[in-house]
Design brief:
This protein is α+β, with helices and mostly antiparallel strands. It folds into two domains: 9-199, Histidine kinase-like ATPase, C-terminal domain (Heat Shock Protein 90, 2-Layer Sandwich), CATH 3.30.565.10; 214-329, Ribosomal Protein S5, domain 2, CATH 3.30.230.10. The strands form four sheets. The chain has an eight-stranded mixed sheet. It contains ten helices and 17 strands. Helix 1 crosses helix 4 and helix 9 (263-272) runs parallel beside helix 10. Strand 1 and strand 2 form a beta hairpin.
């Protein structure tokens, strides 16, 4: 008999979780994306002990029927794509069908979901990748997912989690990103029972940024708008040079409303501020880049925060030109 064996499904899920679930904020990212894709108008996020003890996301989206609520915990089970060609025109935040299976393989997960079409909601419990219970529950339309004891069955992963304060920073940051990207959605965030923010739907990015950061920052922001046909359009705000930071933590980048960490956008922003800000100093930025779906590849990494532009240099130039023009218009 040979030495190569097929891994048990649960072990395979735990290995996949290493890429999808890097830290508690990765869990919240996946759950909030699911809520947005489900058409939610209100999303609430609760965390306890930096996500170690509890993370809960509740929404008022379309919900799932019983069959789908069970199937959602299977790897590569998704409603977002049907065939290979769909990868070239993805317009949802989620599409890989890995998130819930990966999360449930390293945590104790409870899902309660209801639809308009069914009389009863469904409760599904999965413990370390093992289906524990499925039964009727009471809930209006929408979905609530509670994630308890993250990495309880992978002590090596749990040991490498950072301090509660550090994890709370990343958790707050990820919710802030999606609140910025979707001002039309009401968001709330609580930490250890204390409300961090509760914001009603806003009419645009400016109002949402005001809700999250207050008037003092808004007074220093300059509007950005520019584009090139068939390449990219960029909108958003950058801070006037007097409002500067020593880190990039106050830079928020989105491509087709997807939160990304992208060198192309960062380089374009830096180029736009060339000779205006000294080395090691960074502007505040909220930049939204819209490109035709066929011009980007979002299927680069399971975490879905990395993308590839087909025309990297052209996109960078669009961003740099738009930022430069914003500064010129403000007399900088």
């Amino acid at each position: 008999m040979g030495n190569i064996k097929v891994l048990p499904e649960n072990l395979a899920n735990q290995i996949a979780a290493g890429e999808v679930v890097e830290r508690p904020a990765s869990v919240i990212k996946e759950l909030v994306e699911n809520a947005i894709d489900a058409g939610a108008k209100r999303i609430s996020v609760e965390i306890e002990l930096g996500g170690r003890r509890l993370m809960r996301v509740a929404d008022d989206g379309v919900g799932m029927n019983r069959d789908d609520s069970i199937l959602a915990f299977e790897r590569h089970a998704t409603s977002k794509i049907r065939r290979l060609d769909d990868l070239a025109k993805i317009n949802t935040l989620g599409f890989r069908g890995e998130a819930l299976a990966s999360i449930a393989s390293v945590a104790r997960v409870e899902l309660i979901t209801g639809t308009d079409a069914e009389n009863a909601a469904t409760l599904v419990k999965v413990d370390g990748g093992t289906l524990m219970d499925v039964k009727d529950a009471a809930r209006d339309r929408g979905t609530t997912i509670s994630v308890h004891d993250l990495f309880f069955n992978t002590p090596a992963r749990r040991k490498f989690m950072r301090s509660e304060a550090t994890e709370n920073y990343h958790l707050t940051n990820i919710v802030t990103h999606y609140a910025l990207a979707h001002p039309e959605i009401a968001f709330s965030l609580s930490n250890n029972g204390r409300e961090i923010f509760r914001i009603s739907p806003g009419k645009d990015l400016r109002e949402r940024a005001f809700q999250l950061f207050g008037s003092s920052l808004m007074e220093s922001l300059l509007p950005v708008a520019g584009g090139r046909e068939f390449v990219a359009n960029v909108t958003g705000f950058v801070s006037a040079p007097r409002e500067r930071r020593t880190t990039r933590d106050s830079q928020y980048f989105f491509v087709n409303k997807r939160f990304v960490r992208d060198r192309t956008i960062s380089d374009g922003l830096r180029e736009g501020f060339r000779s205006i800000l000294p080395h090691g100093v960074y502007p505040v930025a909220f930049l939204f880049v819209n490109v035709p779906v066929e011009e980007i590849d979002v299927n680069v990494h399971p975490a879905k925060t990395e993308i590839r532009f087909r025309r990297t240099e052209a996109v960078k130039d669009v961003i740099a030109d738009a930022v430069r023009q914003s500064l010129i218009s403000a007399g900088v």
